[in-house]
Write a structure and sequence with these properties.
By secondary structure, this protein is mostly helical. It contains 21 helices and two strands. This is Proton-translocating NADH-quinone oxidoreductase, chain M.
């Protein structure tokens, strides 16, 4: 059955190219729900003991193995991907883009790459699928983005390509001393602290660019702004999660010897990014750039918490990865709704929509509260566990990172207040279409359920996190 995780995205990506234009919307949604069904089936048959369940494990060529499988961490990432893809398609239901065959095809190819990243247990296949994801998101943004998109996208491509080459070089550096690219063979290699640090930096560069972590973030605001909204949702909601997953699955377990030299370095950079991006977000006039920098601030906190390598912090990181994926898609949909109806994202030209569109005002407000992690939302428990881990690691860093709670509230409610209240700036502002209402309501209800009962996530991933954490207590670890 797991082979369907590869077959279905490829099938729908190719077959949608011959579907009549009028049927592309429904076909895309049906295809994405089919993939979601397979992921749920995989989850139901997984024995949640924390181990990796391989469904393919064969030697292939030149040390490359056909090693694919999943544990609780992989399955959670698969589920997040499989849930967000149909939400992105439904949220664009009213757009002309939704009936574009190439766009829908690229979404499925991107889903294929993401699935491959999360189930590859061979380093080279992880790299191959990592690269595959770059092509469709680049083409989506290139074909359907803003007129002035080209310079921003070339910067995005160069950044990610350079990062990927660094990761490939590091991967080859490990393989020289390993029996194969299979993850267990790679983890068995023991390096000196200095060598491990250099090789880990290769992985870190790729992940730091994709997340992004300060100062590797300069591609992000322009790319988010110039991409079509669906592309921004895919980038922020799903794609950057590959790098956070890669830190947990690959970077730290492969190089536990590098943690003494990398841990403070990465945590400090990520914490700087948390504050820097939040402050920049407060000053933005474009509401899309507000949430682009907000996204950078939130994921910086997740990256810092992962590097603490503490069980509670890791558990909170997984909750926050899910929360951020959902909320980011919702916030960028809110921006899309505003831009679609007014033709602008400039906060100075917006205002008064709460009177004209009360349903939108309510669900946008609910999303704003979820974004600032109020109690009873999944962001609250996620950020609490992450900040607890950071404070226990270093009190000063924890306090600085904790300012995200205040700064986040400032830029989020500033954007909401300027766009929804004040003088009415448009004669008409249509309230939510059923597709927009469905996506916003689904996201808000989901983050509330996960906030009230986060054990849905933690009970599923904690056994796998415990096993991954043991990497640092093995003889090859610290």
């Amino acid at each position: 059955m797991e082979i369907l995780l590869f077959i279905l995205p490829v099938f729908f990506a190719l077959s949608v190219l011959i579907v009549p234009k009028s049927g592309v919307r429904a076909y895309g949604i049906i295809g994405s729900l089919a993939v979601l069904g397979v992921v749920i089936a995989c989850m139901t048959q997984y024995n949640n003991d924390g181990t990796v369940q391989l469904f393919a494990n064969k030697q292939w060529l030149f040390g490359i193995t056909l090693s694919f499988g999943y544990d609780g961490i992989s399955l959670l990432m698969l589920l997040l991907t499989a849930v967000l893809v149909p939400l992105v398609l439904v949220s664009n239901f009213k757009n002309e883009l939704a009936e574009n065959r190439l766009f829908t095809s690229m979404v499925f190819f991107m889903q294929l790459g993401l699935i491959g990243v999360f189930i590859s247990m061979d380093g080279l296949w992880f790299y191959v699928f990592w690269e595959i994801t770059l092509i469709p998101i680049f083409l989506i943004s290139w074909w359907f983005g803003a007129p002035e998109r080209k310079a921003a996208l070339m910067k995005f491509f160069i950044y990610t390509f350079v990062g990927s080459l660094a990761m490939l070089a590091a991967l080859i550096g490990i393989k020289v001393n390993a029996a194969s690219f299979q993850i267990e063979d790679l983890k068995a290699v023991v390096f000196t602290s200095k060598t491990a640090c250099w090789l880990a930096l290769g992985f870190f560069l790729a992940f730091a660019i994709k997340i992004p972590i300060f100062p590797f973030h300069t591609w992000q605001p322009d790319t988010y702004t110039k991409s079509p909204m669906a592309g921004t949702m895919l980038l922020s909601g799903i794609m950057l999660k590959m790098a956070l997953y890669g830190m947990i699955r690959w970077m730290i377990p492969l190089f536990p010897e590098a943690m003494p030299c990398l841990q403070y370095f990465v945590i400090v950079l990520a914490t700087i990014g948390v504050v820097y991006a939040a402050v920049i977000a407060i000053k933005q006039k474009d509401i899309k750039r507000v949430f682009a920098f907000a996204s950078m601030s939130h994921v910086g906190l997740i990256a810092a918490a992962i590097m603490v390598w503490d069980f509670d912090a890791l558990s909170g990181s997984m909750v926050q990865i899910v929360n951020h994926g959902l909320v980011a898609v919702g916030l960028f949909l809110a921006v899309e709704i505003i831009e679609r109806r007014t033709g602008t994202r400039n906060l100075a030209d917006l205002g008064g929509f709460a009177k004209q569109a009360p349903k939108f005002a309510f669900w946008f407000a609910a999303l704003a509260f979820a974004s600032v992690s109020v109690p009873l939302t999944s962001g609250f428990i996620g950020e609490f566990l992450m900040l607890k881990g950071l404070v226990e690691f270093d009190m000063i860093i924890g306090i600085i990172a904790g300012t995200t709670l205040i700064l986040g509230a400032v830029y989020t409610f500033r954007a909401y207040q300027l766009s929804m209240y004040g003088p009415v700036t448009r004669d008409q502002f249509a309230d939510l279409h059923w597709s927009e209402l469905f996506v916003l309501a689904f996201i808000v209800i989901a983050v509330v359920i996960l906030g009230v009962y986060p054990a849905v996530i933690t009970d599923f991933v904690n056994p796998s996190l415990k096993i991954v954490l043991e990497t640092l207590s093995t003889p090859s670890g610290l």
